[in-house]
Amino acid sequence: MVTTEDIIEEKEEKKAPVFKNPEFQHTAFRSSKKRGWKNLKQIIALERGYTWPHDAVHYSSIDAPPAFTPAKKYSDVSGLPANYTDPLTKLRYADSSEFYRVRDLPMDIVNGLLELRKANSIVG
C-alpha cells in the first residue's frame, strides 16, 4: 500500500530535468544596464569600419534584383490602395467619397500633394 510519506519521498528524490541548468541566468537579468537597439544606419556604419572577406554578405553589400511586379499605387488623400486617378488633377483616390474630396481641393494643395508624390506634372 502506498502511503503519503512514500509519495513525499518520491517527490523529494526527483531531480530537475536534465535539460534545465540550475545555474542558468537569463542575459536580461545579468546586468542592470539596459541595452538599446541599433538602427540600420548605425549597423551599416559599423559594417563599413570592419575589414570583410571578399565573399561576405552584409547589409551594404546585398543587391536586390529589380521587382517584376509593378509598384503599388496609394491614395494621395487617405493612403489606402488606390485604383483610380482623377484626370483633372492627376491625384490618386481609393473610392467615390475621396473623388469628391479631391475635386474640392484648391489647386495649391493639389500641387503640394503632387510634389510630395514627386509627380512632376504641371496642373492648371
From TrEMBL:
User: Which domain of life, per UniProt?
Assistant: Eukaryota
Subcellular location(s) per record: Nucleus
Q: What is this protein called?
A: INO80 complex subunit C
> In this protein, which residues make up the domain named Vps72/YL1 C-terminal?
73-102
Enumerate the InterPro entries for this protein.
INO80C/Ies6, Vps72/YL1_C
Cell inner membrane recorded as keyword: no
Cytoplasm recorded as keyword: no
Q: Which residues form a coiled coil?
A: none
Upper lineage: Eukaryota, Metazoa, Ecdysozoa, Arthropoda, Crustacea
Keywords of the record, alphabetical order, are: Nucleus, Transcription, Transcription regulation
In its UniProt entry, the species of origin is given as Penaeus vannamei
Q: Any one Gene Ontology biological process term? A: chromatin remodeling
Cellular compartments per GO CC = Ino80 complex
